[in-house]
Amino acid sequence: MADETIILRVLRYRPEQDSEPTFQEYEVPYRKDWVVLDALNWIKEYKDGTLSFRWSCRMGVCGSCGMMVNGRARLTCNTFLREFYPNPITVEPLVNFDIERDLVICMDPFIEKLKRVKPWIIREDVKPVEDGPYEQSPAELYRYKQFSMCINCMLCYAACPVVGLHPEFIGPAALALGIRYLLDSRDQGWDERMEEVASHDGVWGCTFVGECSEVCPKHVDPAAAIQQGKVMATLDWFKRLLMPRGQR
Amino acid sequence: MARSNEPAVWSLFAGGGALTALILPVHALALTILLPLGVIEADSEKLVAFLGHPLFRLYMFVLALLGLFHGAHRLRFTLIDLGLHALATPITWLCYGGATIGSLVALWVAVSF
Amino acid sequence: MAELLKHDVVIVGGGAAGLRAAIAVAERNPNLSVAVVSKIYPMRSHTVSAEGGAAAVIKANDSFEHHIYDTISGADWLADQDAVELFVHEAPKELTLLEHWGCPWSRDPDGTVAVRPFGGMKIERTWFAADKTGFHMLHTLYQTALRYVELTWYDEWFATKLLVDGDRCYGVVALELRTGAIRGITGKAVILCTGGAGRVFPFTTNAITKTGDGMALALRAGVPLKDMEFIQYHPTGLPGTGILITEAARGEGGIMVNKDGYRYLQDYGLGKPLDVNDPRHPVKRTMELGPRDKLSQAFVMEMRKGRTLKGPYGDYVLLDIRHLGEKKINEKLPFVRELARNYAGIDPVYEPIPVRPVVHYVMGGVDTDVDGRTVLDGLYAAGECACVSINGANRLGSNSLTECLVFGARAGHHAAEYVASAPDPNDSVLQKQVEEEAARIRKQFLEKTEGKERLVTVRKDMQNAMEDGVGIYRTEQSVQQALEKVLECRERFKEVYLDDHTVSFNTELISALELECMLDVALAMCHAALARRESRGAHQREDHPNRDDENFLKHSLVVLRDGQPKVEWKDVVITKWPPGERKYGADSGLPTDQK
Amino acid sequence: MRRPYRRPMPKTWWLKHPHYTLFMLRELSAVFVIYFALWTVCLVQRAGQGAEALSRFLQTMKGPGWILWHLIGLAFVLLHTYTWFATAPKVMPVRRGAEKVPDGVIIAAQWIVLLIVSVIFVVLLAATT
What we know:
- Chain A is α+β, with helices and mostly antiparallel strands.
- Chain A folds into two domains: 5-105, Beta-grasp domain (Ubiquitin-like (UB roll), Roll), CATH 3.10.20.30; 108-242, Orthogonal Bundle (Fumarate Reductase Iron-sulfur Protein, Chain B, domain 2), CATH 1.10.1060.10.
- Chain A is built from nine helices and seven strands.
- Chain A has helices at 36-47, 108-116, 138-145, 155-159, 161-165, 172-182, 190-197, 211-215, 222-242; strands spanning 5-12, 22-29, 66-69, 72-75, 89-92, 99-101, 104-105.
- In chain A, the strands form two sheets. In chain A, strands 2-1-5-3-4 form a five-stranded mixed β-sheet.
- The radius of gyration of chain A is 21 Å and the shape is elongated.
- Chain C is of the alpha/beta class.
- By secondary structure, chain D is mainly alpha-helical.
- Chain D contains four helices and two strands.
- Chain D has a two-stranded antiparallel ribbon with strand order 1-2.
- In chain D, strand 1 and strand 2 form a beta hairpin.
- In chain D, helix 3 packs antiparallel against helix 4.
- The termini of chain D are far apart.
- Chains in contact: A-B, A-C, A-D, B-D, C-D.
- At the A-C interface, helix 1, helix 2 and helix 3 of A face helix 3, helix 4 and helix 9 of C.
């Protein structure tokens, strides 16, 4: 039992010495309650300290350990070895992102996209803090709650072919977040935010492959958010068409 | 970034998608398979009257308009996604242009019956 | 020679405290340039893992007085009462601000913010966003912070040293992970918001990142660490992984039983249990809603009596929430269900959850006043890495998220004022320090050609020494042993040889720098634990089992004098609440007609 | 130093996973939607030329090649219907207060409507001819 092992094929890329990524195989002890991240840590601690990857909370909420496991975008902290044993496991960095090193991807484009949807409450009138919280009924909360659950793990970007084909596409997580704020009863930033959400790079870039929602570990369902965003953008477009400026 | 005018075509796409999802299965089965095979027996004259009924002609036109725009919209994105990103603009013109021409032909057929 | 990266205020850490401080500076003075230096992307910060909620008085049945008393008695009277009073008064404002910024607080049917009870509370006052409160707060703060153009984000930069010129702090030396560049990031004020140090122990709820970096940086700069002997064990972590099962599970009515199905907490001065179907259950400040230190200590006693269950990851007891029913669990505790299913392999709707105490929080930290100021001008600290102190000997659940906001904001505001009058730094002095630090890191790690120690073995030995010697119960002898082992680990650390000698995203180097910090923090913990010869809150000395207000109603301060750690003392601020006996259960002064 | 590596997106990306392939097939259903729409225009146009022209047209359509082609088309149309109905609850979620109406209910409701519409279509066709 203790001697059982499993093979991890890990994509390596060290910018200081490699011209392109190559696979490296590691034999790792197999434990039923180990996740892929445990195996990677075992490699790093005992076999090869040069293997680089991100991780933090190891409980599926910080969103930093997303990788391609056997071709699927997964959080490695809740992907168990037992799902694959005794077959080898292939671990690669998330696709549709540049590789910084080994399993570490470059997050800059994602952060830029996040900013584009203005993920903050926009108010025309700011309520003084002394006047207490806004009221929001449970029903109003549930309108956007699901879309606020995104942990920015970016698995959806790796799953979305549109992100790969058109890097300028704002993408599932950021759009879902933009729509989360559009649906928030406390927000008044509709016009401002719609400029991005309803742009060509926004919801209209989506062809509804739907894979983003399949891989989402938090059931945010960004595909649903984006389709609802299309409906919202369409109603808005007709409203603007029918009503003269300034009277909306 | 500016808002896109995509809603103009997307609403036709969505309308077409909903209409065709609902009606095309029975439409295709009955008219393109069962009718020619004679499973649904039809007298030619009566059939002409049925197909020429203003309501059917209206239906034909709506189906053509929405169906063509639905199809054109999907075709446009599929072609681009298959690697023709560079040709996005001509593809867009071609797809919606085709749908517009098709719809006009349908309108002409419907009106000139 | 690389130019200094110049700003007005440098914030180290991108969790709740750091982001709140950043926003505070930007709001107070939009002309200031603020650097947010974080070793991970801010939304990965450990705030994200906080589950249960954040405390603030908001409901009509509550009062500031109650919150203050709960906090002070929970702290076993070691909290500074002026700080607690101020904290309690500012708490509602801060949580309201979060609400204005979009935090999806759970709501009552009338649209007001909902609250739930937590351990050690007389009245329920914990605001929550289901059981992902920390996650929602962190993302709300991060997203809100993104709108401020005054902020410059140094994401994935690891601060290795404070820049000090004369008697003032002027920034940090930081290593950019992706390039390996070591640069000086300067400002006239530095706010440390680097979080706790749970990773000093082997079994913790804490993320890998919680390695006490800010505490170590301050200690090395001559700033004292306060009350480092107080380590909070959370009573309900999953065996093996240490993943946290929130106190909210008990707040909603979950019960704890031993191997006989017996609610053992009744044997430990925590009151008498009510039937779970009794409408008055759960009773506040009683049984499962006692404070964390008492519950964790009760576990050890049960274990010694042989009444716990045995598992592959040690002894455990059971947290049972089955009687809440699937609907309530899904609505109020969805994350608990998700975590139990994923990592314990059980569905809490149908089976009780195996749990055991797990290192969760460091009550101690960088010694600050209520404005986050340290003894070093220009250096501030807030959040878990600081010790104001409001947590004393035992922090109450759901006070820490609020603490991050209240004191993050205060530190930010004060720093914004301070930089206006502080003298400019001498750039060449700072530049020299940056070069020295860069050279040290290169020499000690990257250019080293031999060494016989592996990082992981030193770290594990340190962690096990701390668990064995400075755990829930300690003695002079056990702490002394831990101290010797930690000192030995510090020696062995010099012999560590890394596999990775490259510069681009060298995570092994970061692990080494983190271990270096942890060794310093562990040392401080041992010294403080040795010096406090009494039992109070989370510090239980079996050789000194009673609280000793005469000699130890004081904060311990560990400070480096000539490189050697020394323990000094500082009086606790007592204003209106004279030290009394901590009472939980029926005699806790609880109204009997609770709803 | 930094030297980020960009991995190219293969042209055959849609063969990499069954979900992507299914997506491509779904999109290709559009070809048949277009086809059936145009076919219907032709049908009406023939009907406009009189009963005989219509009969000839239908006679041609009886050929096994045509029937097979239409059967394939029908399969794609059904794929379109299936996927379209499945996505409706995502695009237009229905809420009753804080509760979301389960996806299954919305999907089932659409199939019931389809059934009713289909029956009406066939009855009208059969009854008037």
